[in-house]
Protein: ZYBA0S09-01442g1_1
Amino acid sequence: MSSDTIEDDFVNPFEEVHPPIEAIPDSPPPPFESTEALPSTPAEAPPLSPGLLNYYSRYFQLTTADFKLKTLASLSLRSERPSPDLYGPIWITATVVMARFLGSGVFALCIDGILRGVAPATFQFSKLVHSTWLFYGYTFVMPFVAQRLLADSSFIELLTTYGYVNVVWIGASLMLSGVDEFGRLGRPVVVTLIEWVVVALVAAKRSLSLYSQLESRKALVLLALDVLFCVAAKFLLY
Structure:
């Protein structure tokens, strides 16, 4: 065996062997077709289904700043009609009822427990019941009556108007409750006169607000009914 044959058969174990390089074809590769399904884009959320709950829920979307502005605006002598909402009429009317309830209890405690030194008188829950159905009934029923007379106004707009004019009753309820309780100390004639003066001021303020917001000759009938409501509140609650 010659030395040339041995050199040809010898393989170096430390030599790195590379595979042969294939020639790059001139034509472009075929387009890649993926068999995996691409993620589909999420579909848009369907609109809310029609219904009373979905319709009236938008009238409760009221910020605290807007509620304060509308409440303060309702105390002016000539207030503009507020934007329609249901939050104000419900909670303002509830505050009027609670003012009557808490006002009587606090003033009765001061008179009986502090001035007279006796056990506080029990609160007449009949007045709380009367104030609840009277204010809520009038606030939610009168817009139906006003809608028949004022064809260009919706029920929600009128309910907002009647709800926000109840703001004046919050302070008046506290004042009338105090005067009513202090009337047990004497001078009932003076107490009755003060109560009627407060009710007259409340009726005048409500009439100005309603007249400036309704702006119609037919509103005179509504103003007369509102005055009767104030008189009924005086007889039933104070």
In short: The two ends are 136 Å apart (CA to CA). Residues 80-237 form one domain.
